[in-house]
C-alpha cells in the first residue's frame, strides 16, 4: 500500500489521542488504529442507567501542571470532584490518606503533636535498621497500627503475596498528613470531565480517521507501510515479539452490577483493607458526578496475577523487570521509524496528567526535527 499518512498511531488511548490532536493541528495527517472496539483505552467510560461508569477502574484527573489543566479543559468541562476515599477494615471506617481524622479514629488523639508522638512511639518500638521487606519498611514509616489495619491486607491482595515476601522498595514513602483534610491528592487542579472521559477523548480526535477492532500485529507490515512514522502505545515487549522475555504486570478484574437503590456506600471509592474481603475496593460510579439517579452502579475490583493475553494494568517495576525493560528500551531506540509512548510503550505507571505532559513533549520534539 502506498504511503498515505504522516503518522500511524497504534492505540486510541490518551497518549495516542494527544499525539494525534497535536500533529493534526500542525497540518500533519494521521490514522489511529486500536484492537478494542472503542476509543479512550483504559479511561473509557460508558453510560449505564444514565451513570458514567469507569469500565477499567476509577480515573480521577488531578495535576499541579497548569498547562496540562488548561489543555484538557479545551475538550471537556470538569466538575469539582475531590478524591476522598475511605478504608473499611472489618467494619471500621478510616479516612485516606492517613490524616488527623484517621489518627483520631484509631487512637483518639486530637492534635497533630499527639499524633506525631504516637506514630514516633510505634516506629521506635519496631524499628529495623535495614528493612528487608515491605512489612518492615512500612512499620518503619508509620508504625504497627496503621500497617496492620490500613496497609497489610490491601497490599497483600494487590500484589498476591505476603508483605514480608515483597521487596522493601515498593514503599519508599507513605503520605502522612497532620491536618483534618481528606483530599487524597495534593493537587491544585482536580475533577472529572462532565459527560465522561470517552466524550472528552472523542472531542480530542474529532476529524481524525480511526479504525477499531484492528490487531496491528496481524498485518504489521501493511500497517507500517501506510505512514512515514509509527506511534506505538502497546506493550513494548510485544512489539519485539518478546525476544528478551516477557515483562510482568499486575492485572485487575471487575464485577460490575446495577443496584435498585439510590446510594450503596455513600462514597465513590471504599478500600477494603482487611485480608478476608477478596476484593480491594468498591467503586460507586455515580458519586464521581454527584449523581441523583434512582439506581446506582458499583464495581468490585479484584487484583489478579497477570498472564500473557490478560489486560496489563500495573507494571511490576522490580529489579528483574526494570533490567529486562532496559534491553527493550535500547532496541526501541534503534527503531528510527517508531515512537514508543505511554504506560505500556514505556513500561511505566503514569497518571493521566503525566501521559499528556510526555505526549506533548514528544510531539514538540518530533515536529522540531
TrEMBL record:
Domain UDP-galactopyranose mutase C-terminal: residue ranges: 149-349
Cofactor section: FAD
InterPro entries: UDP-GALP_mutase (IPR004379), UDP-GalPyranose_mutase_C (IPR015899)
Signal peptide stretch: none
Keywords: FAD, Flavoprotein, Isomerase
Keyword Isomerase: yes
A Pfam family matched in the record: NAD_binding_8
Superkingdom classification of source: Bacteria
Family as reported in the entry's similarity comment: Belongs to the UDP-galactopyranose/dTDP-fucopyranose mutase family.
Full protein name: UDP-galactopyranose mutase
Species whose genome carries this gene: Clostridium zeae
